């Protein structure tokens, strides 16, 4: 069943890699993809439990916006850039150093930090326990969704 779900995610191509930037931010575009797909009823159920939690919550907190208000804003429509502009106006506008720290923090999640055990568990559950090349959560997501071999 897990393999079947991974194949589904891999073939949809609907979610961006967390490493793909929207504006200057890692992960933000992926969060918008999840919100948009969920509103259309097209987000795979594997993702439902973590909407607004985990990386979504970290991203909303970084921008100092309320996740539910972000969902409302996304559902009104607009480009990634327009929604990011709304976030920066409604929350805070991080400077270049803040963005650098955010991107590096997110890029390295799961590598020698408090997420490492969760990452190892998820790799085991997905049949990737032997994948020593997967050291971060972003790498796991990309492998699980078929973007990494």
General description of the model:
The protein is mainly α. It is built from eight helices and two strands; from the N terminus they run H-E-E-H-H-H-H-H-H-H. It has helices at 2-12, 28-39, 55-63, 67-75, 80-90, 96-107, 116-125, 137-144, and strands at 21-22, 25-26. A two-stranded antiparallel ribbon has the order 1-2. A hairpin with a 2-residue loop joins strand 1 and strand 2 (25-26). The radius of gyration is 15 Å and the shape is globular.
Total E-strand runs: 2
State mean pLDDT (0 to 100 scale): 92
Low-confidence stretches: 1-5, 7-11
Describe the biggest sheet?
A: 2 strands, antiparallel
Major beta sheet, strand line-up: 1-2
The shape, in one word, is globular
Secondary-structure-based class equals mainly alpha
Helix share, percent:
55-70%
Strand content bin = under 5%
Q: How many individual helices? A: 8
Radius of gyration: 15 Å
Along the chain, the helix and strand elements come as: HEEHHHHHHH
Distance N to C terminus: 20 Å
Q: What's a concise summary of this model?
A:
The protein has a two-stranded antiparallel sheet. The protein has helices at residues 2-12, 28-39, 55-63, 67-75, 80-90, 96-107, 116-125, 137-144, and strands at residues 21-22, 25-26.
Q: Which secondary structure elements does this structure contain, and how are they paired or packed?
A:
Layout: H1 2-12, E1 21-22, E2 25-26, H2 28-39, H3 55-63, H4 67-75, H5 80-90, H6 96-107, H7 116-125, H8 137-144
Antiparallel strand pairs: 1-2
